[in-house]
Structures are given as C-alpha cells and as structure tokens.
Specification:
With 297 residues, the chain is α+β, with helices and mostly antiparallel strands. 35% of the residues lie in helices and 25% in strands. The relative contact order is 0.20. Bound molecules: aspartic acid.
Length: 297
C-alpha cells in the first residue's frame, strides 16, 4: 500500500472573508507555503517536518493571523496559540496564550520533542521556550499596523468582535502513509485575556492519526471546540468517508448544530485531500509530488 502513496501537503490561510482584491495573493501565499512544506517533506522525509515548515512560512507572512501580523487581545497584546501532532505515535505539542515568539509552531514542535507534557500556557509556555533556546520577540517586531487598526475598530464598535480570520494550518501525508497536522493563530481580535481557541486543542483545531488522517480547522473557535471538530473528521474518515466528504459533513454540522462558520483541510492516510468551508473564503494551497502546486480561496 505504501508504494502507491504520493506525498502531499495541503495548507490553509484561514476561513473568513478576504476582500476580493486580496484573494489571489492570499491564496498564492498558501501555495508557496505548501511548496515549502513539500520540499521539507522530501528532504526530511516526514509529514511532521512538512507541516511545521509550511506553518512557519505563513507565520512569517504578516497577511495571516499567526506569528507576525497576528491579531491582538483586548489589551493590545499578542497571545499566540499553536499545535502540531503526528499520527504514528500520536505525539503532540502545543502552546496557548503565549507571549510573542517569532514562530509559535516551532515552540509547539519543541514541546512535542520534549515529550513530558503536551500543552503549555502563557508564561509557562514562554519559560519552556526560553529554556529551549527560543528568543522572545520584541512585540513591536510582530505587531503590524493592520492588527492595531483591527483592534481599534473592534474596541470602537466599528467592526464585529468575532474571530479574526487568517489563522493558518497544514496537513501532510508522506510516502509511508504517516500523517501530521499543525495550526497557528492569534485567535480573535479583542479577545479577553486568557481566552484560548480551538487551534492548540487536540481534536478541536488540530488532529492527526495514521489510522484515519489529519485535519486542521479554522473559524469560530468556541464552536469548533464544542464539536471536537478535527477528531470528528477523523472518525468520519475511519468510517470510510473521503476527505472531501468528511470535511463537508463536519462543516455542515458546525453550521447546523451551532450556527457557526469555519473551514477545514483534511488528508487521509492514503494521501487523498479535501477541504470545505461555509464562509465566503478560505485560502488554500496544495503541493503534491508530480503535480504543479495549486491554490484557491
Ligand atoms: N479558530 C481560531 C480561533 O478561534 C480563529 C480562526 O480560525 O480564524 O482562535
């Protein structure tokens, strides 16, 4: 079976409503991230390395709500959430409400490698990161004018106090049928201090299991948490659904059960991919060995 699996990386740049004029470039950023992830997969040979690399690229891109350019909480601070999980031994690492570090997904990866705990919060996450040699970022180097303006608009009542859009995520499957998923976000614009969304919570925003597949979610975090959405997707895959059907069914449930909106990217352990959204847009990028990389929104 493993001989027929073609390595693949699928990336999202967040469910939401990217203005028409910016959609193509938002999607192109995802395509480039997927290409970078696939290149890493082929060098390092692992789906885990691939999803971390793809997410790093998007965290460094200020257009997305993760790493540099992430949205701000009600006090104007960055409080970052990220998780990564691999599907072979179900190893995982995550951080939440973490003060600024340039690439939160790398800290999550270090949590996975360390192996003692799975999820670190706030100052504890920062302490763990510093102990592992990560250097705290100057907030000014990661907070963009656009993020400040979005917060102002929310606090002044000119914009809806909802989830921000622009969360990033990646799923991958290697030639052996090993899968992985990663997600990174600033969460919601103007969120209360201490609020944690779905992205760093296994089974909600991020999940991977070689027995079924891997998924990364984006959208209304509170609803995604309540539905354990990525775990639900993996159960649908295990029941025989294709990745596209599983993604569509899970997003339909998000809408019908909780009246919420969001999107999903999914890969199964044979390398088939799927995605779905019930928002206006969800930028995505796809890179697969032997094919031209593609993207859309
Ligand atoms: N799901 C993220 C959160 O609620 C937001 C997003 O996907 O844009 O933190």
């Amino acid at each position: 079976m493993s001989r027929s699996i073609v390595p693949v990386v699928l990336v999202h740049g967040g469910a939401g409503d990217v203005p028409e004029a910016k959609r193509a470039s938002h999607a192109e950023g995802c395509r480039l991230a997927a290409i970078a992830g696939l290149a890493r997969l082929l060098e390092a040979g692992s789906a885990l390395e691939a999803v971390v690399r793809a997410v790093e690229v998007l965290e460094d891109d200020p257009r997305y709500n993760a790493g540099t350019g992430a949205c701000l909480d009600e006090h104007g601070a960055l409080a970052l959430d990220a998780a990564v999980m691999e599907g072979t031994e179900l190893r995982a690492g995550a951080v939440c409400s973490m003060p600024p570090f340039r690439n939160p997904i790398d800290v999550a990866r270090a949590v996975l490698e360390d192996g003692r705990h799975v999820l670190y919060a706030g100052e504890g996450a920062a302490r763990f990161a510093k102990d592992r040699g990560f250097v705290p970022a100057d907030p000014a180097s990661m907070i963009t004018d656009a993020a400040r303006e979005r917060l102002r608009a929310v606090l002044e009542g000119r914009a809806h106090r909802g989830w921000a859009g622009g969360t990033v995520g990646a799923v991958a499957c290697d030639a052996e049928g090993h899968v992985a998923a990663a997600t990174s976000t600033g969460g919601m614009v103007g969120k209360r201090a201490g609020r944690v969304g779905d992205s760093p919570i296994l089974g909600a925003g991020t999940y991977a299991d070689d027995a079924s597949g891997a998924a990364s979610a984006t959208g209304e975090g509170e609803a995604i948490l309540r539905l354990a959405l990525t775990r639900h997707v993996c159960e649908l895959l295990a029941g025989g659904a294709s990745p596209d059907d599983a993604a569509r069914a899970a997003i339909a449930r998000l809408g019908s059960k909780l009246g919420a909106t969001g999107g999903l990217i999914v890969v199964d352990a044979t390398g088939r991919v799927g995605h779905a959204r019930n928002t206006q847009t969800m930028s995505w990028g796809l890179a697969r060995v032997g094919e031209a990389a593609s993207c859309g929104h």
